[in-house]
Structure formats: structure tokens, C-alpha cells
Amino acid sequence: MSAITIGFARIRFELLGYFRRPDTVFFTFLFPLLMLGIFGAAFSSLGDVGAKPDGTGGVSMAAYYLPGLVAAGIFLSGVQNLAIDIAGEKHDGTLKRLGGTPLPPASYFIGKIGLTLVTAILQAALTIAFGVAVFGIALPSDPAAWGTFAWLFLLGIATMSLLGIALSALPRSGRSATAVVLPIVLVLQFISGVYLQFTALPSWLQNIASVFPLKWLAQGMRAVFLPEHFASAEPSGGWDLGLVALMLAVWLVVGLVGALLTFRWTKRS
């Protein structure tokens, strides 16, 4: 069997293991949906935001938060889930046992990235469906917007998955993986325009966030789900989708190089 065939077989194995861990499912799979429900309900009394001078074109707070939470879902599924999961497997001996089998590393990576892809698709679909059903969020009607969503989603999955694999080398033990990874994930969400309006942050914090990929993925998702005039609220006054693609591609390369340099079947001594 080829490495690709084995890798696709491992996707099913990874999915079964993932959905048998309630804590992982809650903090990576259901977390964006939960946050959309909280923010949508808590700020519903504020009415629409972002209206034009003539009073048209505004969206509800739930609709405003949806793009950032879709981006956060990809980020959580890739970076947080894989970093903690692989670190745990490395330090409980699972990877060492796999390393003693004919399993190629490429097959292992395919299984992990396939897990991220499937869970992120289900998560995004559930979050969007929840927003439409509960808060009446209007989805884009332009096919071009959904085309943008497709390439952003796939590029985001690839980037965040590789970064999660690379980040898994950081924790010194399986027990410390959550304590190491969660603060990084939470801080990046708060400074990248997921929970707070990006331009409301201090300029120095915006500059820091602009180095990392979540800010660009969230900006790209806003270009998909928000009306065009919301682009004027971005730091540059536009969606800058070309720059979004470039920054995500740069971080994809960073994640790939990091994963190749740091991944080992055994833990560091």
C-alpha cells in the first residue's frame, strides 16, 4: 500500500479517536458555535452595526461575529487540536510505537491533516447553519464570494495544520501541552479581530497581530460574509485578499519547514 492510501485509511482512525474525547470536541469543535450563541444573544439589543449614512447596509452583531468565528474554528482545529494531540501522543509513547511500524511519516501527517479538514468542514457548516437558523444571518448570494471562501478555507486548513504539527514540538511533556498551547491560541484570537474589532485595538497591538496568520484569515472571512462597505473599517481601507493569500502562504511554508525540522517519533530527552 502506498503512503497516500495508508494516510487516507488513518483519517477514519483519527476521526473515531477525536469524537471519543468529549473535552477535545467541546474546546475545538463546539467552541466557535458556543461563542456565536453567547455574543449574538448578549449584543442583540444593540441592533445593527456598520450601517451606511442612509441607514442601510447594517448587519446584526451575530452576523458581524460569524466571519471571525469561522476563521477561529479553522485555527482551533488545526493549531490547537493538532499541537495538543501530537504532543500527547509523543509523550505517552504512541508515536514511538508507531515509529517502530512500517507507517510512513507522510501517512501520519495525511491522517492528521485529513482530521482537521473533515472536522473544520463540519464545524463551519454547523456554525453557519446555527447563525442562519437562530439569528437569521443572511449568507452571501454572490458565487464569487463562495469561491473566495473555498480557497481561503483550504489554504487556512493547510496552513493551520502544519503550524499545529510544528507547535507540537514546543511542550516539554504531554501534561503541559494544554498549558503551553492554550494561552497562545487565546491571545491570538483576542488580538486578531475574532472577538474584538481589529481597528479598535492599539496600533502596536495591530502590528503584532498582523505578523500572525489568524488576523489575515479572519480578514479574508470578513470579505466573504460582510457587505463590501465594511472594507473601509479595515486598517488599509480594503480587504486586501492578495495580501491575505500571501501571508497565509508564507505561514504555510513556515509551518512546513517547522514540521519537517521538529517532528520526531520519540520525545526529546
The succession of helices and strands, N to C, reads HHHHHHHHHH
Query: Beta-strand percentage?
Result: under 5%
Rg, rounded, reads 19 Å
- Major sheet details: none
Organism: Leucobacter iarius
Family: Belongs to the ABC-2 integral membrane protein family.
Transmembrane segments: 25-44, 64-88, 109-137, 149-170, 177-198, 241-263
Subcellular location: Cell membrane; Membrane
Keywords, separated by commas or semicolons:
269 residues, 10 helices, mainly alpha
Describe the structure.
The structure is a single chain. The chain has one domain. The model has no long low-confidence stretch (mean pLDDT 91). It has 269 residues and is an all-alpha fold. The two termini are 33 Å apart. The protein contains 10 helices and no strands. Helix 3 packs parallel to helix 6 and helix 3 runs antiparallel to helix 9.
Layout of strands and helices, then pairs:
Layout (H helix, E strand, L loop, with lengths): L2 H16 L3 H21 L18 H31 L2 H6 L5 H31 L7 H25 L9 H15 L11 H7 L3 H13 L15 H22 L7
Helix pairs in contact: 1-5, 2-3, 2-5, 3-5, 3-6, 3-7, 3-9, 5-6, 6-9, 6-10, 9-10
What can be said about this structure in brief?
The chain has 269 residues and is mostly helical.
